[in-house]
Design brief:
This protein is an alpha/beta fold and 533 residues long. It folds into two domains: 253 residues, 3-Layer(aba) Sandwich (Rossmann fold), CATH 3.40.50.300; 198 residues, Nucleotidyltransferase, domain 5 (2-Layer Sandwich). The strands form three sheets. Strands 3-4-5-2-6-7-1-8 form an eight-stranded mixed β-sheet, sandwiched between helices. Strands 9-15-12-11-10-13-14 form a seven-stranded mixed β-sheet. It comes from Streptosporangium brasiliense.
């Protein structure tokens, strides 16, 4: 759904400025060409239809949607109404109701939208002759699972009672691989197996269940074009697996898009914990599976914890990022009590200039000399086009902190940035950090060591999580991949649209500034091999 102003009523002006930072001209042009922007009246009408449709979904199924299912169902309905051609992804744990949510929602849409087309011709006039749905899965048996749920819902006593309403007067017309209603709505079962021959059909809604097993080429070449003429809504559901695929990549793209200003939520996720809170029986089931499989087993991670066990090494995991976030901490706008370190990753091409301020517990190193590091704040200068403007924004931003040293990547324009900052901030040590493989490898290994020891954290308060800077930081850290080149360990963003590693680089550069201060405390003890004189 759209972002509501009430969600951010408690945010400060600075936080709002961070949340709705300016986009580049290219981003604005692309968004203007594809984004569906509704006026206030139309959005209110859409919201009203969605709310009423959710009531129908609950009545049709006989039980209300769980809290984690409701936003997903609402977004499906909204996407079809406004015809934004969204590709929605749902990563739910096994048997938590992802297919049930889709089936109940689709059944309600197939029955109600042809009727509502007469009431709202401008919004829903395209469904006057029915809603056409394609239900796909990697193999025919899996496709039959989702298709069977939709058929079961449409042929239930509740559905028949609803369709017999004088204002609706609909009913099931035909069954088989295609279930058709009198209104013209239909749902067809099909497979997306790479060896299957898929006939050219046209759909308003394209569903791919167990999408983690779908063939990428089949999805892109054969299935997606079936919704071209209707700007169809695509819905991908599934669970994690061992390899990257169209499901994984779409999820990551949706997560990245959600960090942009005013973006609608297109990815929905619910692990076993979220489902267990709503369903006590599911909680008991998962506890039994923990004992049977082991909470750290591959099977439990994939099916219930939603951990992708990727063949390509990742720098960290979403679970670890969640553990290191301090939920009691908000971003710190100013800090003078102790020296902080700063990492600056200057922008290259489509990247953003990112400034990360890190507090260090200088007085309490552990037995290996590692200090505790805490991110205090981020500055994202992606919307500032000129370097001259960026210099002054950086100096103004850092004036609120007691800065000990600033690390700047010397590659590209980094040299010029470092020299200019030395002039503008003569009281601060500006360190030019090398961009060669040995230098980068040292930085990434140091950051990884800090994360493994729990010696680095960041604000993760509920208010902070609404900020675009936080969401971009978490997304980039989640995307970060390990690349081994000879003896060097490097980390970089995947080669995909919208993927960046600017926040990660900035953090690594800030943390490396403390490595020269590491000094393990030496302990003196008597040797057991030498007697006292």
């Amino acid at each position: 759904m759209t972002i509501q102003a009430t969600e951010y009523a408690e945010l400060t002006n600075d936080e709002l400025e961070d949340l709705f930072d300016e986009e580049t001209e290219e981003e604005r042009a692309a968004r203007a060409a594809t984004e569906v922007v509704l006026d206030e009246f139309t959005q209110a009408t859409v919201d009203e239809i969605v709310d009423k449709m959710l009531v129908v979904v609950d009545e049709l199924s006989g039980h209300p949607l769980y809290r984690y299912q409701r936003p997903f169902s609402a977004r499906i309905i909204e996407s079809v109404i406004i015809n934004d051609g969204a590709t929605l992804t749902a990563l739910f744990s096994r048997q938590s109701g992802k297919s049930e949510t889709v089936a109940n929602t689709i059944a309600a849409i197939m029955i109600m939208f042809p009727v509502l087309a007469r009431v709202y011709p401008n919004l829903l006039g395209g469904f006057a002759e029915g809603v056409w749905v394609g239900a796909f899965a990697p193999v025919d048996e899996q496709a039959d699972t989702l298709f069977g749920r939709i058929v079961s819902r449409l042929t239930s006593e509740r559905a028949i009672e609803l369709m017999n309403d004088p204002d609706i007067m609909d009913g099931v017309k035909a069954k088989g691989r295609t279930l058709t209603l009198n209104s013209g709505s239909l749902v067809r079962r099909q497979t997306c197996h790479p060896r299957a021959t898929i006939e050219g059909r046209t759909y308003h809604l394209i569903l791919i269940d167990e999408c983690q097993g779908a063939d990428d080429r089949m999805v892109d070449k054969s299935i997606t074009p079936m919704g071209a003429s209707t700007n169809a809504t695509h819905i991908y559901t599934g669970t994690p697996t061992y390899t990257k695929n169209v499901f994984y990549r779409t999820i990551q793209q949706n997560k990245r898009d959600q960090t942009k200003r005013g973006a609608r939520q297109d990815h929905f996720e619910a692990d076993y914990r979220a489902a267990a809170k709503e369903n006590p029986k599911y909680h008991i089931h998962c506890e039994k599976q923990k004992l049977k499989m082991g909470v750290d087993s591959d099977e439990f991670k994939l099916s219930y914890r939603l951990v992708w066990l990727l063949e390509a090494g990742m720098f960290t995991t979403s679970e670890r990022l969640d553990e290191l976030g301090d939920r009691s901490m908000q971003t710190v706008k100013a800090w003078y009590k102790s020296p902080v370190v700063v990492g600056i990753d200057p922008a290259r091409k489509q990247d953003s200039t990112i400034v990360t301020v890190v507090w260090v517990d200088w007085d309490n190193p552990d037995e290996f000399g590692f200090f505790e590091h805490r991110v205090l704040n981020w500055l994202d200068l992606g919307g500032t086009t000129t370097w001259e403007a960026q210099y002054h924004r950086i100096v103004e931003f850092l004036s609120a902190y007691h800065v000990l040293s600033v690390g700047v990547d010397s590659g590209g324009v980094g040299d010029a940035v470092a020299e200019r900052l030395k002039i503008l901030m003569p009281h601060v040590e500006v360190v030019e950090l090398g961009s060669q493989r040995p230098d980068q490898s040292t930085r990434w290994k140091h950051l990884q060591a800090l994360m493994e020891r729990g010696k680095v954290s960041w604000p993760a308060h509920a208010k902070t999580k609404k900020l675009r800077t936080y969401r971009r930081f978490i997304q980039e850290m989640s995307d970060l991949q390990l690349v081994y080149t000879g003896p060097y360990m490097l980390a970089e963003a995947p080669n995909e649209a919208g993927a960046h590693d600017d926040y990660c680089d900035s953090l690594a550069m800030a943390c490396i500034l403390t490595i020269d201060h590491q000094m393990p405390e030496a302990e003196q003890s008597s040797s057991p091999f030498h007697g006292r004189r």
